[in-house]
Amino acid sequence: MASLPEPDRTREWLSTMTLIRRFEERAGEMYARAKVGGFLHLSIGEEATIVGSARALRDSDYLISTYRSHGHALVRGTPPENVMAELFGRVDGCSGGRGGSMHMFDLSRRFMGGYGIVGGNLPIAAGIALSSDYRDTDEVTLCVFGDGASNQGTFGETLNLAALWKLPVVFMVTNNQFGMGTALRRHSAVTDLQRKGESLGVPGMRCDGMDVLDTHAVLAEAVARVREERCPVLVEAVTYRFRGHSMADPEQYRTKEEVALWRERDPIPAFAELLIGEGVIDEAERERIDAEAIARVDAAVEFAEASPFPAPESLYDDVYVLDPNVRGRYSAQTSEEQANRARTAAAAPEDSAQAANDEIPQQLTQALAAGEDGGETSATGSSAAGSSAAGAS
Prior knowledge:
Mean pLDDT: 87
Largest sheet: 5 strands, parallel
CATH class of the largest domain: Alpha Beta
Distance between the termini: 49 Å
Helix content: 40-55%
């Protein structure tokens, strides 16, 4: 077993794991009350994997997740109030109420989002890592995905390029034993997932995803290796989700006895008992940590309830190219002069409209450059730009 870090760090790990657990439980309750729309994927049982891996990163590193992303937003520091508001589809959500459960995002904390497409985050992670190398930084990207995503074409394509280009990215496959409702042994010919990248030039490691100490130790080693050698590593975190794939999952593919067996290894009480045994905390402090997590989640629900829904007129905000008959805003920095030319082009012959559209890539480039310097990329002018023949980004 890995050695315990200093007491303050271990208390923070236990507190964050407990917050994630209580948040997920309440999110499930809110879904049952129709406060949350769409799909809801809970990470109950996977808290050690989430906290142990994220705490191996620096604040300047990047984390990119899957559709099971509430815990990753919380562990990176996004306030639970904003995460809950996002579930409720409110304007104070971390994605402005536009993403919901599967598309959390917090650029200020370098949490690069959750993604609803299985394996869709893998090439994006490689792109982020390529950006870090291009800017000559020592940043590392942690890309989290499930065992089912290791069968997607994006897995092989991305690991191949990451190895070929020596990209600083840690690929962590969260092996929770099931790809949706299909057991690992039924969907993957290779069940030793840490080995799946070897033929592509990506070495593998494995950690006990039910043990926050082992997860942190293995991920810390992987991150250090990637940061120093600037080459990718694949880590398999063996864990288990205590709830179904989503709230709509009847869980007919596994037995109650199997779930009960894994629950005996619940990472939160196991870690709390270890800390009590080592004299880091006592039973009273464990109860206090749990009470504080519940109170924080209660406050998050109240905050989300009080937050308004997005205004109907904001529907076309953040649209890159607009039909001439639809009003909206650019998502890049747009000067009034550029916006006026775009308005004129919308009513002009096709060649003028195309000329206005040709400006958009330049505007996006300027916005991205401003973002590197900490600048905002919000709209500064309204437009009715583009033509019906113009392509969307």
